[in-house]
């Protein structure tokens, strides 16, 4: 069998970039390999995970949620991996910490990033403040409105937030602007990409900084239950919280893995962000993967109620996992995510991010994943990638619309 090509997942991934970026990517790849081979690098990162971010995050058995979905012939234990309890409120800090430690060692003085929901921007501005580095965050002008609280937080943290006003003024356009900046300034600037997307080595590097989620989950569930879970579900935007959760379980064939994409107003509506379920293969932001495009190969507008899932592409490793069938990908519509948001809030007193609510909505489809004759208890883990404070305005507006329409 052919050895897999470096930087590729099957035939997905690669480095489809202008020549001006090749030397910056080569420098990054070498630094990544060099420093992550050192125990001292991981020791420092692990101490930041523990003392700065609050890891390990708990694996919480949600009693009322479990009861709600259990039935006479279906005994369920639903666990939540509480990434929302990280410092800054989401899993994004895991990756930002890893990359800033790398940037420091590379002698960079300036950090740039793109952000959609603002969680990655806040995480990046946070680590830049702590390490005393200049920070510039690109954010779609539409997302800046949807996530005004996070914009304010980034500015408080000392970051410059620059609106991306091209295209749909969302995450894809923020990525374009960040790449443009990096091409011009790569000598002193490190670009912290926020998901498992972009050219090699980003998809591998971001996954490796996020796989702490799955590694902890594995240890925690074995301690609590003495066995692995039956099903694990996570939402997929670019795919970093899902990849971090799934990666340590990929070889455990008995564990079913499910990724939830944003089906927006419906997969048939044309207004969604389901790159894996409805996209075709092509190149976006330096990597070959599934993406939303029209017949001429132009990138199509993505839509989701959650800014963090509103991206027309997806990490290349997910594309490989879709083709191989190891991970099953489903779409969750805006209204189903909203219902799951309210349900967790009421049943468990935990307000989830709208992105994470897509993973919670999977519980409605759960029955079809469990064999009818299953005698044992079914253990499910949902990755709660972030907390919902940033989404309160969106949810309030939606409630207003509903009241208005129902009146
Ligand atoms: C809380 C939360 N979950 C999930 C995502 C989606 O990103 P990814 O698919 O890379 O985990 C985001 C993105 O901003 C987010 O803020």
Task: Give the SSE layout.
Blueprint: E1 8-9, E2 12-13, H1 19-36, H2 39-53, E3 59-61, H3 63-69, E4 76-82, H4 92-105, E5 110-115, H5 119-130, E6 134-140, H6 141-146, H7 148-156, E7 160-164, H8 171-185, E8 189-191, H9 202-210, H10 212-225, E9 231-235, H11 240-246, E10 256-264, H12 275-278, E11 280-284, E12 287-291, H13 316-324, E13 327-333, H14 334-348, H15 354-361, E14 378-384, H16 392-406
Parallel strand pairs: 4-14, 5-6, 5-8, 6-7, 9-10, 9-14, 10-13
Antiparallel strand pairs: 1-2, 3-4, 11-12
Helix pairs in contact: 2-4, 4-5, 4-9, 5-7, 9-11, 10-11, 14-15
The chain binds pyridoxal-5'-phosphate.
How is this structure best described in words?
By secondary structure, the protein is α/β, with parallel strands linked by helices. It is 43% helix and 18% strand. The protein contains 16 helices and 14 strands. The protein has helices at residues 19-36, 39-53, 63-69, 92-105, 119-130, 141-146, 148-156, 171-185, 202-210, 212-225, 240-246, 275-278, 316-324, 334-348, 354-361, 392-406; strands at residues 8-9, 12-13, 59-61, 76-82, 110-115, 134-140, 160-164, 189-191, 231-235, 256-264, 280-284, 287-291, 327-333, 378-384. The strands form four sheets. The chain has a six-stranded mixed sheet, with helices on both faces. A four-stranded parallel sheet has the order 7-6-5-8, sandwiched between helices. Strands 1-2 form a two-stranded antiparallel ribbon. Helix 2 (39-53) crosses helix 4 and helix 4 crosses helix 9. The longest helix has 18 residues, at 19-36. The termini are far apart. The structure holds pyridoxal-5'-phosphate. Pyridoxal-5'-phosphate binds at residues 90, 116-117, 119-120, 195, 235-241, 308-309, 353, 355-356, 385-386. Keywords: Amino-acid biosynthesis, Aromatic amino acid biosynthesis, Lyase, Pyridoxal phosphate, Tryptophan biosynthesis. It is an enzyme of class 4 (lyase). The modification N6-(pyridoxal phosphate)lysine is found at residue 92. GO terms for molecular function: tryptophan synthase activity.
């Amino acid at each position: 069998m052919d050895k897999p090509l470096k930087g590729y997942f099957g035939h997905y991934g690669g480095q489809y970039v202008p020549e001006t970026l090749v030397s910056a990517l080569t420098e990054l790849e070498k630094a990544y390999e060099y420093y992550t081979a050192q125990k001292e690098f991981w020791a420092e990162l692990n101490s930041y995970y523990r003392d700065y971010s609050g890891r390990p995050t708990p694996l919480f058995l949600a009693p009322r949620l479990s009861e709600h979905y259990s039935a006479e012939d279906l005994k369920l234990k639903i666990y939540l991996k509480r990434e929302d309890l990280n410092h800054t409120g989401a899993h994004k800090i895991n990756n930002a910490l890893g990359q800033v430690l790398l940037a420091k060692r590379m002698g960079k003085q300036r950090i740039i990033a793109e952000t959609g929901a603002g969680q990655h921007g806040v995480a990046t501005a946070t680590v830049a403040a702590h390490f005393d580095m200049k920070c510039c965050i690109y954010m779609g002008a539409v997302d800046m409105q949807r996530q005004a609280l996070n914009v304010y937080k980034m500015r408080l943290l000392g970051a410059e937030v620059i609106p991306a006003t091209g295209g749909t003024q969302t995450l894809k356009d923020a990525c374009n602007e960040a790449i443009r900046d990096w091409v011009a300034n790569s000598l002193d600037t490190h670009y912290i990409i926020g998901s498992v997307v972009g050219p090699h080595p980003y998809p591998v590097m971001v996954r490796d900084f996020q796989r702490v989620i799955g590694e902890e989950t594995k240890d925690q569930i074995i301690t609590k239950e003495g066995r692995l879970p039956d099903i694990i579900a996570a939402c997929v935007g670019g795919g970093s919280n899902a990849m971090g959760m799934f990666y340590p379980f990929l070889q455990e064939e008995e564990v079913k893995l499910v990724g939830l994409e944003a089906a927006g107003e419906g997969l048939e509506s044309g207004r969604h962000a389901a790159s894996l379920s409805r996209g075709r293969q092509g190149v976006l932001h330096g990597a070959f993967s599934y993406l939303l495009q029209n017949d001429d190969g132009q990138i199509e507008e993505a839509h989701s109620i959650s800014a963090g899932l509103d991206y027309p592409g997806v990490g290349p490793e997910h594309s490989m996992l879709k083709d191989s069938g190891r991970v099953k990908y489903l779409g969750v519509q805006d209204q189903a995510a909203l219902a799951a948001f309210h349900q967790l809030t009421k049943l468990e007193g935990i307000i989830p991010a709208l992105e994470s609510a897509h993973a919670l909505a999977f519980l409605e489809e759960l029955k079809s994943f469990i064999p009818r004759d299953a005698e044992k208890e079914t253990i499910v883990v949902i990755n709660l990638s972030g907390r919902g404070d940033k989404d309160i305005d969106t949810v309030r507006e939606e409630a207003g619309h509903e009241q208005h329409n129902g009146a």
